[in-house]
C-alpha cells in the first residue's frame, strides 16, 4: 500500500461562505468491471462526487491477488495525476472523497482504508457517523485492538475482521448488528465489491450498470459520469455483493423505519441526482414554489444566493410571478488555496466570493432565496451588501425550516449553541440579519412535497426527532491524533 499526500495549510482556509453552511458529508464510489480501467473510472466518479467532500481523496484497486491503495489530502485532481492511474490494474475499485465529521483532518484518516485479516485483504470506504462509536472503540481497545486513525470507519473494519467465522458477507451482517447510526459502506476484496446501507437509509447509496459492469455510488450523478445506467437505490439494511457470479442481495436488517436525510435534497446532493425516487432539482424547484405560497410578498425581483439557492429561487419566481434575476455573482475561480484576509475584514471575505450587481438591485424590493441559515453571519453580510447597492427592501427566504438541532449522522451542522435558530425566533433572526422580512419553509410544507413518502425522512435537525438513539453529551467527544 502507498499513499500520496498533498494540500497542506490551505485546508484551514477552505471555503469562505461554506463555514456558515452545514458541512458536506462524504462521497463513495465503487465499480466491479473486469476488462475496464476501473481506477480511471473511479477517478471520474469521484470527480462527480467532489461536492460531497474536499478534504481528502483516495482510490483502492483489487487485482485478484492484493489491493493497491493511493490516497492523500486535497481535491481529486490534487491527489491523483490521471496519466499515472494506468499503474493500478484490476477488476474492482472503490474511491472516497472526505469531509471530516468524525476524525480530524489528518492524512491517516483519508479513505479508503485497507486491511489484512484472516479473510485476506479488504478495503473500506464509509459515508456517515456511528452514534455508539465511543462504546465500540473502548470495547475494542480493551481487548487488544490497535488503531491508526480516529475514524468510525476503522472501528467498522475491526469489527468485520473480528467476526471471523464464515464468509465476509456473514461478518458484515454481524457487524451491522453491533453498529448504530448512519452508514453507506463500500467494501472490496481482491476480487469482489460489496455495498452496505444502514437500516434506516440515512445515507444514500445507489446501484448502476454499464454493460456487464456494476457501479455503486453515493449519488446517481456519478453513474451518469462513467456511462452507467441507474438501476435502483440500495435498500435500507441491504447488502449487495458483486463478483464473478454476478450480483446477489441480502436483506440484513429489514423492517426498520425509513429515515432518509432530507438535507440531501435541500443542500448536499447535486441537482441532477436522483435519490429514493425523487429528482433533486425538481424537489428544490417545488421548495421554492412552496416558499412563495407561504410567503406572498410584494417585490420587484427574486434573486438566489448562488449556487445552492438557484433552483429554489426559480421555483419562487415561477409561483409568485416576480421576475427572476441574478443579483449576486459568484467568483468561480477562488480555489482551496485562497488565504483569508485578516479577521477584521469579514465583509471583504464575502465580497471576494459574492459580488452584488448594483444595476440589478438598486431601487428594487428584493426577495433573496437561500437554502439554509446556520449561524447567520454570512446572511447578515449578504443583506448588507444588497442594501449598500441601494435596494429598497430585502426579504430573506430559506428553502428549509430553521436548523435547531445538531446532526449525529454524518453532517457537520455545528454544535447546538452555535445554531442561530436554536436560541432565536424567526423574527429575531430577521432583525439580526437586518432583513425587512424573513421566512423559513415550514416543515409541513417541506414534507408535503414528497407526498405519500413524507414519513420516510429524517428531520432531526429541524424537529429534534432522532430516528437512531444519539450519544449523551459525555459521549460526543471525537478522537484526535494530536
What is the total number of structural domains? 2
In the CATH hierarchy, the architecture of the largest domain is 4-Layer Sandwich
Principal-axis shape equals globular
Sheet/helix structural class: alpha+beta
How would you state the average pLDDT, rounded? 88
CATH C-level class of the largest domain = Alpha Beta
How would you describe this structure to a colleague?
The two termini are 24 Å apart. It is globular and about 70 Å long. Mean pLDDT is 88; it is low at 1-19, 335-344 and 473-482. By secondary structure, it is of the alpha+beta class. The protein is built from 16 helices and 23 strands. It has helices at residues 38-48, 76-79, 133-142, 152-162, 168-178, 220-225, 263-268, 280-294, 310-320, 346-353, 358-361, 377-388, 420-423, 426-433, 443-448, 460-463; strands at residues 27-32, 56-62, 67-73, 92-98, 113-117, 120-127, 184-188, 193-197, 206-210, 213-217, 229-233, 238-243, 246-251, 260-261, 274-275, 278-279, 301-304, 328-330, 354-356, 365-370, 393-398, 437-440, 457-458. It has a seven-stranded antiparallel sheet with strand order 3-2-4-1-10-9-11. The protein folds into two domains: 9-259, Glutamine Phosphoribosylpyrophosphate, subunit 1, domain 1 (4-Layer Sandwich); 280-457, Rossmann fold (3-Layer(aba) Sandwich). Helix 8 (280-294) crosses helix 9 (310-320).
Short description:
The chain has 482 residues and is of the alpha+beta class. It contains 16 helices and 23 strands.
Amino acid at each position: 500500500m502507498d499513499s500520496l499526500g498533498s494540500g497542506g495549510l490551505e485546508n484551514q482556509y477552505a471555503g469562505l461562505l461554506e463555514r456558515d453552511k452545514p458541512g458536506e458529508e462524504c462521497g463513495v464510489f465503487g465499480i466491479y468491471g473486469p476488462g475496464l480501467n476501473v481506477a480511471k473510472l473511479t477517478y471520474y466518479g469521484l470527480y462527480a462526487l467532489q461536492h460531497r467532500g474536499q478534504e481528502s481523496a483516495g482510490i483502492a484497486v483489487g487485482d485478484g491477488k492484493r489491493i493497491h491503495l493511493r490516497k492523500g489530502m486535497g481535491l481529486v485532481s490534487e491527489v491523483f495525476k490521471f496519466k499515472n492511474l494506468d499503474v493500478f490494474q484490476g477488476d474492482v475499485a472503490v474511491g472516497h472523497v472526505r469531509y471530516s465529521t468524525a476524525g480530524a483532518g489528518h492524512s491517516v484518516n483519508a479513505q479508503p482504508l485497507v486491511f489484512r485479516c484472516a479473510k485476506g485483504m479488504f478495503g473500506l470506504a464509509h459515508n456517515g457517523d456511528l452514534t455508539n462509536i465511543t462504546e465500540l472503540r473502548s470495547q475494542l481497545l480493551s481487548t487488544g485492538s490497535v488503531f491508526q486513525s480516529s475514524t468510525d470507519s476503522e472501528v467498522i473494519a475491526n469489527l468485520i475482521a473480528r467476526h471471523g467465522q464464515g464468509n465476509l458477507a456473514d461478518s458484515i451482517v454481524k457487524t451491522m448488528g453491533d453498529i448504530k447510526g448512519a452508514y453507506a459502506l463500500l467494501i472490496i476484496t481482491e476480487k469482489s465489491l460489496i455495498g452496505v446501507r444502514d437500516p434506516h437509509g440515512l445515507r444514500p447509496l445507489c446501484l448502476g450498470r454499464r454493460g456487464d459492469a456494476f457501479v455503486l455510488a453515493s449519488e446517481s450523478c456519478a453513474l451518469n459520469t462513467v456511462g452507467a445506467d441507474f438501476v435502483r437505490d440500495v435498500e435500507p439494511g441491504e447488502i449487495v455483493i458483486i463478483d464473478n457470479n454476478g450480483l446477489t442481495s441480502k436483506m440484513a436488517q429489514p423492517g426498520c423505519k425509513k429515515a432518509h436525510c432530507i438535507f440531501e435534497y435541500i443542500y448536499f446532493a447535486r441537482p441532477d441526482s436522483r435519490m429514493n425516487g425523487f429528482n433533486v432539482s425538481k424537489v428544490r424547484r417545488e421548495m421554492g414554489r412552496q416558499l412563495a405560497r407561504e410567503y406572498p410578498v410584494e417585490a420587484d425581483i427574486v434573486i438566489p444566493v448562488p449556487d445552492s439557492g438557484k433552483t429554489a429561487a426559480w421555483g419562487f419566481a415561477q409561483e409568485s410571478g416576480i421576475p427572476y434575476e441574478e443579483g449576486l455573482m459568484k467568483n468561480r475561480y477562488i480555489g482551496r488555496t485562497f488565504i483569508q484576509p485578516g479577521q477584521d475584514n469579514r465583509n471583504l471575505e464575502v465580497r471576494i466570493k459574492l459580488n452584488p450587481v448594483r444595476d440589478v438591485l438598486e431601487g428594487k424590493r428584493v426577495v433573496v432565496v437561500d437554502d439554509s441559515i446556520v449561524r447567520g453571519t454570512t446572511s447578515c453580510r449578504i443583506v448588507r451588501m444588497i442594501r449598500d447597492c441601494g435596494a429598497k427592501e430585502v426579504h430573506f427566504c430559506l428553502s428549509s425550516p430553521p436548523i435547531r438541532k445538531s446532526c449525529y449522522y454524518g453532517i457537520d451542522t455545528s454544535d447546538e449553541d452555535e445554531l442561530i435558530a436554536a436560541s432565536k425566533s424567526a423574527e429575531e433572526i430577521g432583525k439580526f440579519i437586518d432583513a425587512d422580512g424573513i421566512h423559513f419553509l415550514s416543515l409541513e410544507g417541506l414534507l408535503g412535497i414528497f407526498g405519500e413518502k413524507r414519513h420516510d425522512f429524517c428531520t432531526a435537525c429541524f424537529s429534534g426527532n432522532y430516528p437512531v438513539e444519539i450519544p449523551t453529551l459525555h459521549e460526543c467527544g471525537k478522537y484526535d491524533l494530536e
